[in-house]
Amino acid sequence: LDKELLWKLQLLSEITRVDGEKLVFYKKELVNTLQRTLHLTCKQGYTLACNLLYHLLRSTTLTYPKEYCSVPDGFNKPLSQYFPIKDWGKPGNLWNLNIQWHVPSSEEIAFAYQLLNSFLQPELNRLERYASGELELLRDDVQQSLSIVHNCLLGSGNLLPPLEGVKVTDLVPTLVPLKETKLFTGIKPDYSKDNYRKSIAEVIRKVLHHMLDNSEDDTKSMFMIIKIIGDMLHFRGSHKQEFDSRWKSFSLVKRSMEDRLHGRKQHIRALLIDRVMLQHELRTLTVEGCEYKTVHQDLIRDLFHLSTSSYSQVRSKAQQTFFTALGSYNFCCRDVIPLVLDFLKRKDISQQQFKGALYCLLGNTGGVCLANLHDWDCIVQTWPAIVSCGLSKTMSLEKPSIVRLFDDLAEKIHRQYETIGLDFKIPERCVEQAILLQQSRYRPANLPPLTAEELEMGLKRQQEKNAEALKHYETLINFLLDLLDQRNLPWKFEHLAIGFLSLLLRDDLQLPNRAITFFIQCLVHDALVVRKMAISAVAGILKQLKRPHKKVAVDPYIISGCRKPTSLTIGDRSDNQWLQYDSSCLPKTKEAWENCPFVEKTHWGYYTWPRK
User: Fold this and answer.
1) I want to staple 314 with a disulfide (CB 3.0 to 4.6 A). Which of 92, 95, 309, 490 is the partner?
2) Residue 101 belongs to what H/E stretch?
3) Nearest of 201, 218, 100 to residue 160 by alpha carbon
């Protein structure tokens, strides 16, 4: 493609990053340019055209400040009336910034939908025909269509309504509604128009399944599909990575430009506006507490399928998106764990796919670790499944990467595991205060007060949950011990199971006798690492089983029959003679033994006696 055309197309794509009101006047020319450049054969050419489409959609649909001037009045006055250099370095008034915001107008929104109807919908129709087999497309054409769809999604992410669908129920019993947090970010979704986010989800899933069946080696298209699925699930106008980068940059600029002489947060107005914009973007990134729906379930399962692909780069990119999705939706991990564990048990998978499933259990740094969730329902499934991998014919310890994965899993579980409660109780005093709070005049109008039957039901569910947790605890221990009894269990997984058992030692509940017997037998195990774990576990068991000694306050002078000395005498004395060993006066009967006084601290009495 001609370099001059590429240069001008790049300039056009960059100068459209302006106020959306200015672009509406040139919409006819811009649409004509896009029609002629979006389907260029040259990848560099259609990529620049996609950037133009992306910037047009963002400029017309996002909420952002129009200017970052040092003073709110701008610099439009003549020099005879206003000399701008006098306001150099002037701090902004935090309580009167007078920010000029760009809020999408109805005309801009109509232009954005015109762009989507003109360029997104035809590509979706084209991809749908390709997925159904009606149309044959070259790989470059598929990548071009996916690139257009992706840029349309990124550009209009703030405009498109979220994915709708039926909620996935029965993941966790609850007496309160688990609703998601919905924040207003400047524009209300228009449900009367086509929900292109939903249309993209349906078409992309069809394309993905078609490619998995016919052209799984088209990794470039797979990368683009993974990006589209991730942005469909999470993107609302800003990416977390870009936001974090901008936040760090803002903090650096703030430190370098602060006025330390005057102090009092005397920052320039442009810096304050940038901070306000970052706060607005932070609201758009709020995804905690999202409801888990069937459409999310389908997309997350597709991501898991890609996370266990035969191609390492596809697996890596899909896993990052998969981990982000797991941290976004309520209790979705409970739905995903059985899927991952079933995959580990399959016999028709390759070593690469098996490794991908292990990575899904491991999780990423600072993210969700499916193997170590703080939930009895989850670890009672995951820990035995990890140990059972040693009996799987699919798994091979000949690959160093798989051995390292199991080591990383064990290390992460031991590092992050926190003891899970078995007996959860709410004090009656807290219940009384909660009832008083509900009866107050400040309670929400849509929240009716609880009845006595509901309180009794809650108490009953709490008791049932405690009994279920205890049952899970005992089941997990017995399952691990049964696996350790398997003679063909490799030593690597034997060590894993013993490590998991050692984590189940508790302060509030005695370890079952079978587990205690096992740890005692491990004290003479051939492997040094097992003996060390057994020594540590038996020490904890002995401390747990130690009988509490009855402590009684005694007066050493009454026992010895001596008077308290007036001066300090160090060493053997008549008042500490009863504490010393005397072979001629040993307690040889039960009565003499029980009457013999013992002092816990061996150094007491030699220098002086404590006050009590």
Assistant:
1) 309
2) strand 101-102
3) 201
Dihedrals φ, ψ of 268, to 5°? -70, 160
The phi and psi torsions of 191 (rounded to 5 degrees) equal -80, -10
How far apart are the C-alpha atoms of 291 and 171, rounded to whole Å? 12
Distances (CA, A) of 397 to 389, 405, 411: 11, 11, 18
CA distance 287 to 305: 24
- Measured CA to CA, the distance from residue 440 to residue 227 in angstroms comes to 49
- Phi-psi label, residue 404: left if phi above 0, alpha if psi -120 to 50, beta otherwise: alpha
Encoding tokens for residue 405? 């994965």
What does pTM read for this prediction?
0.84
| Distance from chain centroid for Cα 56 | 33
Query: Within 10 A of 569 (CB to CB), how many other CB atoms are there?
Result: 13
Give me the pLDDT at residue 317, please: 93
**Tokens of residue 478, six digits:** 């017995």
Q: Are 115 and 290 in contact (CB under 8 A)?
A: no
- Cα Rg of the chain (Å, integer): 35
596: left (phi over 0), alpha (psi -120 to 50) or beta: beta
User: CB under 8 Å to 611, separation ≥6 — which residues?
Assistant: none
Mapped onto helix, strand or coil, the DSSP state of residue 65 is strand
Rounded to the nearest angstrom, the gap between the alpha carbon of residue 72 and the centroid of all alpha carbons in its chain is: 41
Q: Is the pLDDT confidence value at 163 over 90?
A: no
Helix (H, G, I), strand (E, B) or coil at 572: coil
Show the DSSP H helices in 215-331 as ranges: 219-234, 240-257, 269-284, 294-307, 312-326
Residue, of 390 and 57, whose pLDDT is higher: 57
| 313 contacts 358 by C-beta, under 8 angstroms | no
Pairing of strands 101-102, 64-65: antiparallel
Instruction: Please state, in angstroms and as integers, the Cα–Cα distance from residue 500 to each residue in 52, 66, 68, 515, 611, following that order.
Output: 55, 57, 57, 12, 47
Query: DSSP letters of 228-244?
Result: HHHHHHH-SS--HHHHH
Whether residue 116 contacts residue 152, with contact meaning beta carbons closer than 8 Å, is answered with yes
Nearest to 372, CA basis, from 415, 328, 332 = 415
**117 vs 339: CA distance, rounded Å:** 38
Mean pLDDT of the chain: 87
